[in-house]
Predict the 3D structure of the following.
Amino acid sequence: MPIRGNRNAFPEVCRLTVVLFALLFNFGANLRAHHATDSYLSLKLDGQSLTGQWDIALLDLDRVIGLDADGDGNITRAEVELKRTEIERYSLSRLRLKVDDADYPLKITGHRVETFSDGSYDVLRIGVECGPAPKKLNIDYGAFFDIDPQHRGLLRLECGGNVQTAVFSPEKPVQQFDLTTPSKARQFLAFFHDGAWHIWTGFDHILFLLALLLPSVLIREPNGWRVVEHLRPALVAVLKIVTAFTVAHSTTLTVATLGVVRFPARLVESSIAASVIVAGLNNIRPIFAERSWIVAFCFGLVHGFGFANGLLDLGVAGGTLALTLVGFNLGVEAGQLAIVAVFVPVAFAWRDSWVYRELTFRFGSVVIVLLAATWMMERVLAIKLLPF
């Protein structure tokens, strides 16, 4: 007979979630936040004037320009001002705008240094004078891609009361935007794509899901794991995990996006890493046995806040909020289901082989735990050890 999960597993993992939140918050309260390397570009078209601001992390600028003159690990405003000319030269060389296929020189009209929850940024006020009735905007974004392929430029473009968003990456450095009234369908598809891309590029989300799916084709017994005989039990296990994870992260994604409850980004990202550790350890030494869906639900609540941070980074609000929320969440679900659709048939076909039982399941779970532990250390201590 397979070992059944402890009846108290649900309250235990919920208590574990609360304890991890409390410990991480208290331990990291006085440390500088560490966040994925992103910059934030906000533009607004008003008649013939395109104005906005570009928030660039000082840590990123330090890597290409060298802001920390005394090497003490603390970048001061005075050190930033000493490099002001170089900052502006670099910024103007990495962001180019075309309006209706005509080049318009970007101008920096002001600057300041601000500290946000995820670190200090140089905030550049920018502006462009366009021609009459502009119809389309091309943005060529190339900041930091040559030194960090994980860097992303997050855009919020407001035009005529409508908001468009985009994510610039090494794969998509140049994008075009309609400055006339965009269709709701196009906006929905853009948010859907952003949601799917967020989970596909979120290695911690992917590893958490895979850690939960690895034992779906196995059954725990007193003398160890054995393979499931038929596909149906595996599909039932996967359905429970996916449903629990979906319900949980959809709930917290919604409440966080609506501003009902929010947590600091560093706390959320550190807790996500902790959830991956727990899911991997549960494969090595089962605590919840066949109740992995409990882990999926409780820690799915944490992952929902992480998805919300990714959505809120795009700066959506007002009339586009409902459309954004639905499109982004459905994109996340589609990205998640695509991973499941690829994993489950392969896992079931290979479940009785040494490659799956020893290499993929056992060794893979150990690797997942080690990677997640490294991420957690990075996020709590504000250090960078891995390139992803």
About this structure: The longest strand covers residues 119-129. Residues 9-30+194-381 form one domain. The longest helix spans residues 321-350.
